[in-house]
Write the structure tokens for this entry.
Amino acid sequence: MAARLLTIGEFSAACRLSPKALRLYDRLGLLRPAQVDAATGYRWYAPTQVARARTVGLLRRLEMPLALIAEVIDQTPRQAVASIRSHAVTDARAASERAELARYLCLLIDDQKESVSMTNQTFEVQQRAVPERAVLSAVRRAHIDELGPTLGALLGAMSSAGPGLTGVDGCPYVVYYAEVSHDSDGPVEMVRPMGDLAMAQRQSALLDDVQARVEPAHEEAFVALTMAQTRGSATMDALDVLEEFVVSKGATVTSPPRQIMIADWRTAGPDELTCHLAVTVRSVRPTPSPLS
């Protein structure tokens, strides 16, 4: 004899999820009712669905995004465990970054930013001359949670274009033209230096929405950041230090900030140097006196 189906109210009590949440999970395909009355729209659930519903509810308590829950809920036990552990590590890192950012914001509100370093770190500013070089580049818009996959896919396409330059001058970099956050989607530009312009032009013709151009020779001021420092507010302190350095040299910043990828972010440890945070610089030469 088949078990009696449960009303949405009964099922809500059994799985400890609100009817509102159950309707949402139905719309998203996470938890479809066993039966829906065509005339009234009433939802009916099978008792065997309680375990799945409770699992969805517990994953939401972990603040797992609904899109990820949709993947995890149908994975094998081994895959699901790996996904949950990975999410827990990512969420703990994000919580640490939010706490760090909160402390930074409190310092700004209290007007103590100049006297107290939120990161308790100092940054050594260095300068270098960057030669004229051919580059492949593409502009994208992405929110913070989309940025990594978006840039990773773009860089992967550019990397298939053939050999680039060697050394730091050949490292790919990202230019941030505007804020990237949960509320702002940039834009940002992914750039990969190439061996010569002809090669870059041939490859740009094969890659959708990727341009080839020549970047003029320029001066850069930069600080090196570890993987841990690229997350949270350490980059804000580093940008402040760069700006103060450039002003102290009587120069001006001529570009938005850029992150030059000197290591593989996919495998770098938290204390490994992974990028140079840089700005391009133009020296300010004094106007000659008419009497000189």
The radius of gyration is 26 Å. The CA atoms of residues 72 and 190 lie 31 Å apart.
